[in-house]
Design a protein that fits this description.
With about 150 residues, the protein is mainly beta. It is elongated and about 55 Å long. A hairpin with a 2-residue loop joins strand 11 and strand 12. Strands 1, 2, 4, 7, 9 and 10 form a six-stranded antiparallel sheet that branches.
């Protein structure tokens, strides 16, 4: 029996290094979650982004425990960001949701660091969940930090 050892090509090593560099430059993804009464809310976001580039966070609300999303409730997300971050919309309404069903609501929040450093972003969410006999309204605030990299 003959054993041979194959070595990756130079091109494959360069491609792997470039992929790893790009992945680090874009930042890893992280999720912040809140388990509420009959729902779960959260936001998935990039931990860092180059100054001047836009990062899209996905804020979601999922009904749990046999409850459902109240389709008649006027869902609203109010986003606050510091001076070092620009957000495309400070207020998102039900019509802005990218997903709206009886089990889940998803909003996209676009933020662009305009200064280097860590920036705290907050989203205040007004939501309602129901079951056959009852509806409950909630307000939650989700907070996350995005680092602007490569800027001044």
């Amino acid at each position: 029996m003959t054993w041979t050892r194959t070595m990756p090509s130079h091109a494959a090593l360069v491609a792997a290094a470039l992929f790893a560099t790009c992945a680090m430059a874009q930042g890893e993804y992280k999720t912040v979650k809140i388990d509420g009464d009959h729902y779960r809310a959260g936001v998935k976001f990039r931990t860092s982004v180059k100054v001047g580039e836009t990062a899209t966070a996905r804020l979601y609300i999922v009904a749990t425990d046999g409850w459902h999303i109240n389709e008649k409730f006027p869902y609203q997300v109010t986003v606050t960001a510091p001076d070092g971050v620009s957000v495309t919309a400070k207020t998102l309404k039900k019509a802005d949701a990218v997903t709206f069903s009886s089990s889940k609501v998803v909003f996209k929040i676009k933020a662009k660091p305009i200064a280097a450093g860590k920036h705290d972003i907050k989203a205040k969410v007004s939501l309602g969940v129901c079951k056959k006999e009852q509806c409950v309204l909630h307000t939650e605030t989700l907070s996350w930090t995005v680092e602007g990299t490569g800027g001044k």
